[in-house]
Amino acid sequence: MKYKVKAFGVTKDILGGKEAVVELEGQTVAALRNQLFQKHPALQGLRSLLIAVNNTYAEDNQVISESDEIALIPPVSGG
Question: How far apart, in whole angstroms, are the C-alpha atoms of residue 43 and residue 68?
Answer without folding.
Answer: 21
